[in-house]
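Support reply, case 0932

Customer input (verbatim):
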Amino acid sequence: MADIAVVFHWEPAAMADLGVGELMEWRERARERCGAEK
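Our regenerated output:
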């Protein structure tokens, strides 16, 4: 959640209703956007 919040500027409340799978997908998008390696 922290990676998503930093990259996309989302508050924790915006992610509260996301399932684990959705969080993992958004985390991967955040990783790609910031250019971090796995």
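We compared this against your earlier run and they match. Two observations from our side: The chain has a mean pLDDT of 93. The radius of gyration is 9 Å. Please reopen the case if you see a mismatch on your end.
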